[in-house]
Amino acid sequence: xxxxxxxxxRAAVVCFAAVSVACLAGGGSASQAFAQAPTQQAPTQQAxxxxxxxxxxxxxxxxxxxxxxxxxxxxxxELITGMPPRLLPKISERSGIALDVLRPALEAQMxxxxxxxxxxSFIVDGTKAEFKALxxxxxxxxxxxxxxxxxxxxxxxxxxxxxxxxxxGMWYLVRLAxxxxxxxxxxxxxYADIEVPKDKLEFTK
Length: 205
Fold this sequence. Notes:
- It is built from seven helices and eight strands.
- It is of the alpha+beta class.
- Strands 1, 2, 3, 4, 5, 6, 7 and 8 form an eight-stranded antiparallel beta sheet that branches.
- The longest helix has 16 residues, at 99-114.
């Protein structure tokens, strides 16, 4: 079994982790200038990023909408197959599990985990996205995100950010937390040193 944890009691942790690992391909292409930006290895010093003017948000907004719908409709297979291209192979490499085994295993585990919970609301606000550029010119976005869930009768809320990246001309969304962040940065080393504000996690009766 592949388990992602965040450090709470198991039921609460794995439910929020299941949402955190969700990554989905965008519904439209990024602008041509961004799509052609070259990928480089992460610099040895902390990456110096700068805020840039917002590009056409069509693809990014489509990705956010698609992610929310897939979670609401419990279509977890789309979350797995729609991961950024380098991510699932990296999970396979680190876990030692073949890709053709890993995909259905992750979907089955997410289905089992999420059966213990309900997503009350999932908001990825693409309209308030902040766009930044890596030193190599590659654009990424930080999207304010709020997840409200009920797990075994307890209410939980996670407030933070989803990162939007461009790979092969398409927007992808990634929720970074704990193990997920390490895997993402291993798969996409050019983003290894970007700063993403930490999530605020609260669980109440």
